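WARN retry 2 of 3 for item q-0093 after timeout on previous attempt; input resubmitted unchanged.
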Amino acid sequence: MNAPGESVRETLATNLRRVRGERDLSLSELARRSGIGKATLSQLEAGSGNPTIETVFSLSRVLAVPISDLLDPPRAAGLTVVRGADVEVLRGQGVDLRPLRGIESGEAIFEVYDQQVRADSRQDSLGHVGTEHTIVQAGRLGVRVDGREVELGPGDYVGFDALLPHSYTALDGPVRSVLLLQYRADQRLHSAPTRLPCLPEKE
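OK item q-0093 returned
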C-alpha cells in the first residue's frame, strides 16, 4: 500500500502530519485523545518511530479516518501484483498484517490485508472506522465482537461494524486469513470535513 521505496513508517509520518493538520489538532491534544504519548507521536511524525497495529488503529479511531488515509494505498490501473515477501509487516500484540491493496468502487472503499494471528496469541481492538470482513484460510480463529464470541475454521467468514470492540484469538496454532476493511467514500479524508465523534473540542 506504500509508494515504491517508501516504508510504512515514512508513509505514516507524512500522512499523520497531514491528517492532524486537517483536523486542526495539536500534538498534545492528539496524545490526550489517543492515549499515545506525545514523544511517541513526535517520533512517528518524524518517521523514526516504530508503528504497531494498535497505534495505527487507535489513530484511525481518534482521527475518524480509514486506515488507508494513514497508510496511503496506491491507485494503480491495469494489472497489479503485490508480492507478500516484499510488503513490510505491521505488527501487533498478536497479529501480523501485510497491507496488500486499496480498492475504490463507486461509494465503497476496501483495504485488503494478509492477516496472520500468531499461535497462542490474541489481538484486541477498541474499535476503528469501517466495517471489518475476515475469511479464514487456515487454522481456527476465535472472534469476539462486543461481548459475542464465535469460532471460525478454514473457509468461514465473519463481518461486523469495526467501531465495536473486538478481538481475534488463535485457538489451535497460527491462523492465516484475509482481512478486508470496508469504508464509505465519504469517510475518506479528502471528502467533506467531519467533526470527530464523541470527542471534546480542542481547547
